[in-house]
Amino acid sequence: MYGKLNQSMQILDRLIKKGLVPNVVTYSILIEAAYKERGVDEAMKLLDDIIAKGGKPNLVSYNVLLTGLCKEGRTEDAIKLFKELPEKGFKPCVVSHNILLRSLCYEGRWDEAYELMAGMDRDGQAPSVVTYNVLITSLSIDGRIEQAFKVLDEMTKSGFKVSANSYNPIIARLCKEGRVDLVVQCLDQMINRRFHLNGGTYNAIALLCERGMVKEAFLILERLGKKQNYPISDFYKNVITLLCRKGSTYPAFQILYEMTVHGFTPDSYTYSSLIRGMCREGMLDEALQIFGILEEHGYVPHVDNYNALILGLCKSQRIDMSIEIFQMMVNKGCMPNEMTYNIFVEALAFEEEMELAATLLNELYLKGVLSQSTVERLFMQYALKQLTG
């Protein structure tokens, strides 16, 4: 649907002419596609057009518009639409309130945010976990840690299921301020309550690195690993992977150094995580350099390391360079696997080089380096020309 709005609308018109009336879910998907492709004004015109043709969108469609207005920074227009919902036959739900609340908090309009919540209470509209998390996140970003803690306490006392996502914004702010003691207290509380720490938690801890407190970040992570009874090597590997996935590749490098000083030996998977992270963040030259550094220290890159780099280069539209890496890989005696070839076929398909992708896929199939199931999946996924010969 997304990226092909005109085509979708043409299909919709044909269905309506044949007497097939789309349901409200279809309308919501189309409106969301419209605002993502062309902006919320076009999405609002589309909604008007749908109504004019006899369509009956539901509250979800209006929530999509509210989201679009807020994402475009048009909070006043969002407030106006929110207030008009009863006239349109809809009572704002908790999702509607949460969308507007997030925007008000982001802009620091706290009095209006609290009034909105008070209105929810008057209307018998109970806040959700998302409502509390929006407040906690916004208060933490604004540096209002004491208030964030109060909201967290209120959330707990009200019987809501508190998770790491509620704590993470507070931990992130405390780390930005270098308040290590409070960070440790929060983490201890989370572990004592048996909360599952996630990537957002480790990403928050990594913010200590911005203040030059890399050793403190490492010591906190080491303590967490021991308190949770993880095999420390597996724990370190998992943390590095999660940091790289969350866009904190440089802090991951800094913390990894401390880990290696304390006896951790990175494996192929860890290096692949770092390479993927660097490519994801546009650090292609650095990703290339890591191979030289690894080899200088006696590490022989694994096929998964090469695949991570080739994938990153292809996603950055550097297929020419990825082919050079492929040739270097083979010259050094590291044989490609099915994933390597899969990456190249998908890269060509993403570049809309369908004929080249089909030709390559045919050749790889005939050479027996791709399984039948992989070949069939790629042909179906990208609508490539069927196998010949």
Task: Give a verbal description of the structure.
PPR repeats lie at residues 23-57, 58-92, 93-127, 128-162, 163-197, 267-301, 302-336. InterPro entries: PPR_rpt, TPR-like_helical_dom_sf. Belongs to the PPR family. P subfamily. There is one protein chain. The protein is mainly alpha-helical and 389 residues long. It has a domain at 346-389. Helix content is 72%, strand content 0%. It contains 22 helices and no strands. It has helices at 5-17, 24-38, 40-52, 59-71, 75-84, 94-106, 110-122, 129-141, 145-157, 164-176, 180-192, 199-206, 214-227, 232-245, 249-261, 268-280, 284-296, 303-315, 319-331, 338-350, 354-367, 372-382. The longest helix is centred in the first third of the chain and has 15 residues, at 24-38. The chain is flat.
Which structural category fits the helices and strands?
mainly alpha
Average pLDDT taken over every residue: 90
Gyration radius (Cα, Å) is: 26 Å
Distance between the termini: 35 Å
Family: Belongs to the PPR family. P subfamily.
PPR repeats: 23-57, 58-92, 93-127, 128-162, 163-197, 267-301, 302-336
Protein name: Tetratricopeptide-like helical domain-containing protein
InterPro entries: PPR_rpt, TPR-like_helical_dom_sf
